[in-house]
């Protein structure tokens, strides 16, 4: 199975490196452009000058960054299929070593880019119709899913989801060698993705001085599982660098609020320590309100969050701005929900990120 045509109207093929030695097959299929997705010296191949060539030097390992190449390769394939060479319709061969993982990943990315109706799974199944061995590694599949989620943008580098993904890789690498990352991404200083409106918006305040510490967009929901429905313990950490999710029904049972790194943590986090205390940013207060740990932290519900930036529920007040049934009175005169968290009546939903404001 040296050369497999991708079903559809394009003259697009997937193969392994030995396909390059089959000059007759390349000529008969009208190949004019070649995308090589591997590290290799191609000087030994004959008639190499006949082809327009794009070389993406990557290894077939899960932590290799292919996502950043999807637009460059997609544009190359698109233009090649339209223009060809010498006035002829173009044909493109995408190959790696075996024609199984790297080349298939690049081909799926092209299909997603050109045909929005495709999902990662449907594009892979299309390729498997002619090349059953097609099987990108798990890391590449995750990158394809993220690419689809991003909307297959023409400017991948500038997309907030891609920037967040790159940062997560930096943190994982630093953590693997037992170090804090050199660069810290403070989420309230970054361009935010559009998030759907939720019925429940909250604000976390220091219980001692009432300083605002975090609001809904910057909270991490780690989805604790009910003991009645949990069959096996969840020992795998979840990343706190991905997007925050909607609050889980059992989140109130946990003793921690997890959140993204925020700019008020800068003096503490830029010390370069792996873990330590989080203190209220109000210099007149400085109360200990939580902890951070780049290597992760286990919540009372049993879920690991990694890296972890945690506020202790006993040291902050949860002010519900919208979407909570109001019962009782809080100690500062605000309404509280049934679990004792606070609720400000008559105030609108929160839109501004947590800054250094002082609550009146």
TrEMBL record:
This is protein-tyrosine-phosphatase. Transmembrane segments: none annotated. The keyword Hydrolase applies. Keywords: Hydrolase, Protein phosphatase. Residues 71-132 form the Tyrosine specific protein phosphatases domain. SMART domains: DSPc (SM00195). Belongs to the protein-tyrosine phosphatase family. Non-receptor class dual specificity subfamily. It comes from the Eukaryota. Pfam families: DSPc. It comes from Phialocephala subalpina. Residues 4-153 form the Tyrosine-protein phosphatase domain. CDD domains: DSP_fungal_YVH1 (cd14518). It is an enzyme of class 3 (hydrolase). GO terms for cellular component: nucleus. GO terms for molecular function: protein tyrosine phosphatase activity; protein tyrosine/serine/threonine phosphatase activity. Residues 321-360 are annotated as: Disordered. Its EC number is 3.1.3.48. The active site is at residue 96.
